[in-house]
Write a structure and sequence with these properties.
Shape: globular
Helix content: 40-55%
Distance between the termini: 48 Å
Strand content: 5-15%
CATH class: Alpha Beta
CATH architecture: 3-Layer(aba) Sandwich
Strand order of the largest sheet: 3-2-1-4-5-6-7
Number of strands: 7
Number of helices: 11
Number of domains: 1
Radius of gyration: 18 Å
Length: 257
């Protein structure tokens, strides 16, 4: 991982770290010797996670956490994990506020964080931005238009950061798992049961995949390696892929009638 100056313990921020993938990332960074800020909108969860791993809890909205987290870490952030997200279901008919919230948390929180982090990182010539995207950002997810669309946006922003700033020392990673055994998976209902639950993994396995990617300075993090094949098929034969996904959609509709 990015360590800043020699002998410097990396300063790491993980948003949405009160549980699930975020807690697993915070736990792994702490175990590797990093100084970690645990952020979550739920203050009790943030404090519980932080206490368990010897980290610092800075609860609050992930869109406004860079300044307070930097202060808590002594003035610098080396690694920022934009992990907080909303798994918003629904179709094009989902209420406007659902769409707006998904866009704000899943995309704009990343943009706002990068805006605050980049001046320091570009001056130092070093920094690492980790975006928890989802396989839905590479593919899609049935029954969840706001989630799928905004996760595509999160991936697009991570790609843009990487291609724009990699020659200036900024490393970017996009984590794109399928099902992970978290509260978010439990909330996906029958669609998750059909598509995600059969191959669901534990949050700690996502952390393992990220650390393997960081060791290789690899952008795309695929805790489910088969997602690479799905992504290739989507690009090479889009109509065949869409037909296959539509079969899943029909199966889901039959199971929800």
């Amino acid at each position: 991982m990015s360590t800043g100056q020699p002998g410097h313990s990396p300063a790491v921020v993980v948003t949405g770290a009160g549980g699930g993938i975020g807690a697993a990332l915070a736990r792994r960074f702490a175990a590797e010797g990093a100084r970690v800020v645990v952020n979550d909108l739920d203050a009790d969860k943030a404090h519980r996670t932080a206490e368990a791993i010897g980290a610092i809890a800075v609860p609050g909205d992930a869109s406004a956490i860079v300044g307070p987290a930097r202060d808590a870490l002594g003035g610098t952030i080396d690694v920022y994990c934009a992990n907080a997200g909303l798994g918003s279901g629904g179709s094009e008919a989902a209420p406007e506020d659902i769409w707006a919230a998904a866009w704000d948390v899943n995309v704009m929180a990343h943009v706002r964080a990068a805006k605050e982090l980049l001046p320091d990182w570009l001056e130092r010539g070093e920094g690492r931005f980790v975006s928890t995207v989802s396989a839905a950002g590479l593919l899609t997810m049935i029954g969840a238009a706001p989630y799928s669309v905004t996760k595509h946006g999160a991936l697009a922003f991570a790609e843009w950061l990487s291609l724009t700033y990699r020659h200036r020392g900024v490393k970017v990673h996009a984590i794109c798992p399928q099902g992970v055994r978290t509260d978010m998976l439990a909330a996906t209902g029958t669609a998750g049961d059909l598509v995600l639950r059969p191959t669901a993994i534990e949050p700690d396995q996502v952390a393992d995949a990220l650390f393997a990617a960081m060791a290789e300075d690899r952008f795309l993090v695929l805790p489910h390696p088969e997602v690479a094949d799905y992504y290739t098929a989507r690009a090479a034969t889009p109509d065949r892929w869409l037909t296959s996904m539509n079969h899943l959609q029909q199966k889901w509709e039959a199971n929800t009638e």
